[in-house]
Amino acid sequence: MTQTEIQKLATEIVGDGQQPNKFFVSINPYFADGKNEGFTPLEGFGDKDSSIYVFDTLEEAQACYDDNELDQEYGVGTVTIEDRLVGTLKEKQLELYMKPTWINREYNF
């Protein structure tokens, strides 16, 4: 199956509660951006860098999930396992965490 065909299948059946169950692992370059309260693509990456895989068993899907580490350099911002029965089962994502920086300034007028 092509990426387009898998994407279409996932869109049609994820979470529909039907059998036989199928498991989908999605890998994409979007990270949780708390500042903008949404998801933002990692710099230099976009939709074209997303992929989705379909499996017959949770064990196969879990192995794929485990093999894909979050990494901003390689454009992996979110990895998700979804299935036909429930929908989203598991997800890991990079989250932008910005520590406040305090600067002391003094003005003499």
> What's the number of structural domains?
1
Q: What letter string, H or E per element, gives the SSE order?
A: HEEEEHEEE
Which stretches of 5+ consecutive residues score pLDDT under 50? none
How much is the radius of gyration in Å?
18 Å
Strand order in space, largest sheet: 4-1-5-6
Structural class comes to: alpha+beta
What does the overall shape look like?
A: elongated
Q: What is the percent of helical residues?
A: 10-25%
Structural notes for this entry:
By secondary structure, the protein is α+β, with helices and mostly antiparallel strands. The chain has one domain (3-96). 19% of the residues lie in helices and 30% in strands. The chain is built from two helices and seven strands, in the order αββββαβββ. The protein has helices spanning 3-13, 58-67, and strands spanning 23-28, 30-33, 38-41, 51-55, 78-83, 88-93, 95-96. It has a four-stranded antiparallel sheet, sandwiched between helices. It has a three-stranded mixed sheet with strand order 3-2-7, with no helix packed on it. The chain is elongated. The N and C termini lie far apart (70 Å). The model has no long low-confidence stretch (mean pLDDT 93).
Can you give keywords for this protein?
single chain; alpha+beta; 109 residues; four-stranded antiparallel beta sheet; elongated
Layout of secondary structure:
Layout lengths: L2 H11 L9 E6 L1 E4 L4 E4 L9 E5 L2 H10 L10 E6 L4 E6 L1 E2 L13
Parallel strand pairs: 2-7
Antiparallel strand pairs: 1-4, 1-5, 2-3, 5-6
